[in-house]
Amino acid sequence: MRRRVAVTGIGIVAPGGIGVPAFWDLLTSGRTATRGITFFDPSGLRSQIAAECDFDPAAHGLDAEEIARSDRYLQFALVAGDEAIRDSGLDLAGENPWRVGVSLGTAVGGTTRLEHDYVLVSDRGQHWDVDHRKAEPHLHRAFTPSTLASAVAERFEARGPVQTVSTGCTSGLDAVGYAFHTIEEGRADVCIAGASDSPISPITMACFDAIKATSPSNDDPAHASRPFDARRNGFVMGEGGAVLVLEELEHARARDAHVYCEIGGYATFGNAYHMTGLTREGLEMARAIEDALGQARLDATAIDYVNAHGSGTQQNDRHETAAVKRALGAHAYDTPMSSIKSMVGHSLGAIGAIEVVACALALARQVVPPTANYETPDPECDLDYVPRVARERRLRSVLSVGSGFGGFQSAVIMTLPRERTE
Amino acid sequence: MSAPHPRRAAVTGIGVVAPNGNSTEAFWKATSEGVVVLDRITREGCEHLPLRVAGQIRDFDPPAAIEERYLVQTDRFTHFAMAAADLALEDAGLSRSDTDADPFSVGVVTAAGSGGGEFGQRELQQLWGKGSRFVGPYQSIAWFYAASTGQISIRRGLKGPCGVVASDEAGGLDALAHAARAVRRGTDVMVAGATEAPLAPYSMVCQLGYEELSTVAEPDRAYRPFTTAACGFVPAEGGAMVVVEAETSARERGVPVRATLAGHAATFTGASRWEQSREGLAQAIRVALDEAGCAPEEIDVVFADALGVPEADRAEALAIADALGPHGTRVPVTAPKTAVGRACGAAPLLDVAAAVLAMEHGVIPPTPNVFDICHDLDLVTARARATEMRTALVLSRGLMGSNAALVLRRGAADAS
Q1: Is A251 considered catalytic here?
Q2: A5-110+145-415 fold
Q3: Ranges for the Ketosynthase family 3 (KS3) domain (chain A) (predicted)?
């Protein structure tokens, strides 16, 4: 019999919302968490805005040593992990540790610390020959993205399959997808899944500046992220982390756990087209959606809500609209599709997991989050983008899609628990 | 023996770009002969660092292997990946027109441990030395860990499942396992593996914090696992890509199945907790054997992780004994990586390539620079050993706490 996979715990650190209650409150209010960058002086940059987290790691239970050795994205993951485990009610001490895995995504990993220490060892970019004596302790932990899954596995004493997933902007969806397959295939019973990134640093802002991917609306940061709106002009950088406890359904039922939803299907394909460019047709994303629907044994018409990648670049929103129409057919026009990036920005590898959390909460609460700032229709984006106001709706199955540099197109399907005869 | 899997994952092509050879043939010749290429680091900007020895790739000519438009937008680690993928696909007899026939049936997965460090350092220098306007348009796609998977997919027109796993060194084996699972789920072909280029000056500075790193200056003494002189490991660059293909697909195409990926497991026991890695590695071996339907006595050769840290070496020797029982002290064990060093997630890929080639040639490559073994292992040291092999076990551990084991069976499975 096929093993089913339940979401039993959620934790989140997002701009404007640390912890599930604050995050959900932000998403349903239509407020935005985008603002002028405060972490460093952004003058000289084309895009000087971001969705920053007002995050105090000590207030969320990390001790001085953990704070010192953990780059910001690791702190997000630890704090979100604590909340998720607490929320799940899982007694990890009572679990077989070899059957507990970790699957966490990050696009740029320890870049913030890498850049910080680079400035020290190179005398602010003056020398190719760098002075290793000026590096700070713990720099080696920023070198490899493996540190993310490792740090979380150590915290929760997971000893099963532990891996970091780093597929750029689809990392979060892919990490949840890998965790889903890990449990479905019987390699673990519990998997701590999610993603984290803290990319608001000069090098990451500058590299997206160089290709004009980010929004230059510096004079109106609160309304800068405008997915699907005709006047959209790029994404707004974000940061954050989200962690979910994924659990084999019978394992969850045996302990009477609260089940938010099931993960029903996951697929990813490459567009083999361009590292940053997207086709107009959206063939590959459509294929990922169809494959995920097949795993979930659902017809396209079963999808009640689409959580969009909706980054707010001209090409993304057009591409994605075409892909969803291709996969869902006429049903696409009857299906609300919104982008929470309008409120929390685009936190690169983390956002996919943050969006999975938004979907799990939407299913649990039967409310669709809106697309903030949506005002002016674009003829090429002609679906129902849930403008500005959250909407109550009967939700049984929802789809979250992601698209990233490298040409990766991913889709995850979540459903309310139901009895399936197989 | 468990029932045969309906879609068994086979290795049908191997492509190597390594410090001891920029082709699979050159790599195997040097590996089987035990040619040591560890040497003083000569990379510009590395002269004064307290890390003296590495496995460097010296005669790789990127423009000869890769088109200009891909070269300019990629780091050295992706140059290696694209070149190795070409070699692997060619070895598997898969041309562009073959893969174009159904691009969704061919995917790409790589393991990444270090990213585009040299490219990244150059752009960091532009940003901090000159200003943000001097950061080039390719930084966003060259530095990140997904660059190689994306570029291989684009350059070769491959639209199947694309993935990037990072479980430090052991991630190389996880990438192959990921490919095998994709094949079992229905993808015909996966181009899978890892290549790394962690020897740029700033990348080296980042690694100095690893207490397991060898700082010994003499190349022949810098990396000597399983001996009382073990003093850490030596970093390297390069790696390998392999073509992992459904056995049915290989049969239809009429290409030989070089080996099957019969079993894999990964565990975690904490960063640098080498004593605990004994239990984690033993568990990984047991689960991998179980998945392969393989008895311990069937293992004909073990490619060891061989970190070169006394506590870690002891844990590995004990893990092999724990998992394989009495056979653990009799089975030949080798660590050809002492000739080339460890290239992060690519290290176990070179071992997988060597293991497949070893089974094909009936020759176990040696562990150069290693003698006076202080553990109860039959380590193949000075010279290669000729022996018939059907099954190989490849082990890997990572500095961040991962352990992985992979069981490879020679040739087509139905021959056994």
Answers
A1: no
A2: Peroxisomal Thiolase; Chain A, domain 1 (3.40.47)
A3: 2-416
